[in-house]
Amino acid sequence: MITELYTVYRIELLKYCCMICGNVSDAEDLLQETFMKALSNLDLLEELGEKERRAWLYKVARNLFYDACRRRTVEQNNQMQAEEETDGGFSEVETAMILSSLPPDLSQLFIKRYFDGYTSKELAEEYGLSPSGVRAALSRARKLLREKLKS
Fold it and tell me: Any alpha helices (H) in the chain, and if so which ranges?
C-alpha cells in the first residue's frame, strides 16, 4: 500500500511541499517525513478511501511543515535570548570567577541547571537528591551569588 501511495502521490505532493517550503531540499525532507508518518499509520490509511488518503497525506505534510516552522521559531528565539543574555551580562571569565566563589557541588549544580539546560528532575537523578532538594540547593546558590555580587 505505501508503495502505491508513494508512486501515485509522490510528484504532486513534492510540488506541494516545494510550494510551502520554498526550496527543493526542505521539500524533499518534508515529503520523506510525510511518507514515514504514512508508514507508521498504515492501519488508518487502509480504512480510508482514495480521496481521504490523498487528503490525509496533504494534511500531514502541512502539519509537519507547521511543526518545523514552530521548532525553528523557538530555536531562533532561544538563540536570540541567549545572545541577549551574554551581550549584556558578564564575560565568560567573569562568570567563571563568580561561580568559583560557590562551593564546588553548588557550582556544578548551578552550571548544569542554568547553562547546560538540565531539569531539576534530571539533576535529582544524577545527584541522588529529590527534585525539591535540587531546587533548594539552587536557591542557596542564587542567594550566595546575590550576596557575592552585592559586595
Answer: 2-21, 24-40, 42-47, 50-88, 92-99, 104-114, 120-127, 131-150
Q: Please, are residues 20 and 29 in contact by the beta-carbon 8 Å criterion?
A: no
Smallest CA-to-CA distance from 2 within 59, 64, 53 is with 53
Contact partners, residue 69, CB within 8 Å, separation at least 6: none
Angle at 84 between CA 81 and CA 90, to 5 degrees: 125
| The pLDDT value given to residue 107 | 83
| Residue found by looking up cell 504532486 in the block | 12
> Does 30 have pLDDT greater than 80?
yes
Q: Tell me: the pLDDT tens digits for 83-131?
A: 655 555 566 777 777 777 888 888 888 888 888 888 888 888 888 889 8
